[in-house]
Design goal:
alpha+beta, 3 strands, DNA-bd_dom_put_sf
């Protein structure tokens, strides 16, 4: 039952929200989305509006953090 409440309370967010969440400009988010390479979280298009689900954005970010762990400076192959 709690899952239904959570889903009902999750609003779709706009591109400006995503840009702020990622620390990018709106134009950068739009450019990355246009490339279609998975460089930004999945989106939904409603008419001419592009929206992002906050839960999906957080899952995408967690996946990015996991896939990038261990790839920091000083980890070059010998």
């Amino acid at each position: 039952m709690e899952d239904n409440k959570t889903k009902a309370n999750t609003a779709l967010k706009d591109t400006a929200w995503l840009a702020q969440r990622l620390g990018l400009s709106v134009s950068t988010v739009e450019r990355l989305r246009g490339r279609g390479l998975g460089d930004i979280p999945p989106h939904v298009t409603i008419g001419r509006s592009v929206r992002y689900d906050e839960v999906m954005v957080e899952r995408w970010l967690a996946g990015q953090l996991q896939s990038n762990s261990g790839k920091g400076v000083g980890h070059d192959a010998a």
